[in-house]
Amino acid sequence: MTCLHTLRLRPGRPSRLLLLALLVYAVGGTHSVAAQPTTLTTSERARCITSMARVEVDTPGGILSGSGTLIDPRGYVLTNFHVVGHRNHESGTPGVLRAQRFRIALVRNERDIVDDEYVAEVVRGHVRLDLALLRIVGRADEAPLPSTPFPAMPVRADLAPLSTPVWALGFPAGMRTIHVTAGQIAGFENDNGGQPSWMRTDTEFNPGNSGGALIDASCRMVGVPTAVAESVEPIELARPSTRIPPAWLSALGSGAHLTAEPTEGLREIGVLTSIEDAESGEQVGGNRELRYYRLPAARPGVASVSPRLVIATMGPGGRVIRESQGQVLVTASDGPATLIAVLVPRGRDGRTPSVELRYTPLQDADATGGVASSASASAERHTRVHGSVSRPAGGACASYVAVTPAGLDVRALAARLRSGELLERELRAQLLGLSVLGRDGTFTLSAPEGALQLVVFGPRGVEHVAPLEVRGETQDVGELELPTGCRG
């Protein structure tokens, strides 16, 4: 069994695990492509250079610096997440920022020496995409911010074709003047859906280029220099501009003032039903992919994964606490920052299988919290509803029974929860009562009087929905006989 202790993935620098299984995205021969400029003019080069930023932060190990690009004239800087935070457990706790504020240095021309003029805060971050968006919030000397707009680089909306001439801009090795290298787009790496998740290029990247800009001759960002994979010759990898979360660009385009939001790319494991994770391709090369997940607050519990893959709990600093296969125990002493890590194999075609994860609290009170009835006014009259669930084939897949308002499309909500479009606490807030199904198939819950519906949850969503008219102090709904085929 492969152990997480031995897995070493280092974004932004060469890794001996990156044995590339190259999936080339080809531009069809009959596809008409507009002529592209092949040289970067003096005026375009000057315009691009003034949009570049050096991002710097003090860490316990010393000063860490990377590159960034101003993509909005109000002072929003795009960079790699690993420049501002920890993307994997080798460097620290995945998803945790290195600091609250970062120094931003700009240049005015190709020979200008950067000066740490500004400070910025992270307002958006995505661990899997390895992207982050910072907002300049002040000057280092605490003087007022300039009233004039910052120079900003446009982001190319479409995928730059194969062989497009490109230039990498950044501040490698902590250099204090801009560094520019030239090359072309050499190929693409695809995700499970066949969409390009990486650009390969022969444009030279060096440590510190991470988070900078890969541009075309029109001074448009086509990618973000991110990593270098070792092969016979180093292969430079950039995140295409088409992978920047559309919600980020839409918010910037609307003129909205962005404030910090929770880091994306760390989904919370479901309790009521499992979550499905089919995403792939955000890590490149190698024969496996490491994914991280957040845990619900309930302790203790068991986190499980299907298929039975290597699964581990991780504590502060990315320390592996315990590791197993298929499921792992989460104890009462595991803090709120504890994460789950799963090692997902990659096939010869570069694809990874879809995985399903679920969390089972070991105390019923933890499993049933957070529903609307827990916040109901004490004066509202409630009924004690009880019954049982059986399945002719004996497959005990059902695990929770709930009551909801009549007409609530709970199947659609559960599907959105499984796909990551909805948080479990958002679904629980719409439930009026919830019970863990006992080993003998019985359940008891409290529900308000009126026209409701009874819902049975299973590992993969909703198993059963039926109308329920609730009246009186107690109500026996009898035995619910579910279909033979178990969805779980």
Query: Cα distance, first to last residue?
Result: 26 Å
Q: How many runs of DSSP E, i.e. beta strands?
A: 27
* Largest sheet report: 6 strands, antiparallel, barrel
- Helix-strand makeup class: mainly beta
% residues in beta strands: 35-45%
Overall geometry? elongated
Return the CATH topology of the largest domain. Thrombin, subunit H
Fraction of residues in helix: under 10%
Going by CATH, the architecture of the largest domain would be Beta Barrel
Count of helix runs: 6
Strand order within the widest sheet? 1-2-3-6-5-4
Query: How big is the Rg?
Result: 26 Å
Number of domains: 3
Extract low-pLDDT stretches: 1-34
Q: Determine and state the CATH class of the largest domain.
A: Mainly Beta
Descriptive report:
The protein folds into three domains: 4-253, Beta Barrel (Thrombin, subunit H), CATH 2.40.10; 275-362, Jelly Rolls, CATH 2.60.120; 368-481, Immunoglobulins (Immunoglobulin-like, Sandwich), CATH 2.60.40.10. A six-stranded antiparallel β-barrel has the order 1-2-3-6-5-4. The chain has a six-stranded antiparallel β-barrel with strand order 7-8-9-12-11-10. Strands 13-20-15-18 form a four-stranded antiparallel β-sheet. The chain is mainly β and 488 residues long. Strand 10 (213-215) and strand 11 form a beta hairpin. Helix content is 8%, strand content 39%. It is built from six helices and 27 strands.
Question: Topology of this structure?
Answer:
Blueprint: H1 42-49, E1 52-59, E2 62-72, E3 76-79, H2 81-84, E4 102-106, E5 115-126, E6 131-139, E7 165-170, E8 179-190, E9 196-201, E10 213-215, E11 221-229, E12 235-240, H3 246-253, E13 275-277, E14 288-294, E15 301-306, E16 310-314, E17 320-325, E18 327-330, E19 339-345, E20 355-361, H4 364-367, E21 382-390, E22 400-405, H5 410-419, H6 424-428, E23 433-436, E24 442-448, E25 450-458, E26 461-470, E27 474-481
Parallel strand pairs: 21-27
Antiparallel strand pairs: 1-2, 1-4, 2-3, 3-6, 4-5, 5-6, 7-8, 7-10, 8-9, 9-12, 10-11, 11-12, 13-20, 14-19, 15-18, 15-20, 16-17, 16-19, 21-24, 22-23, 22-25, 25-26
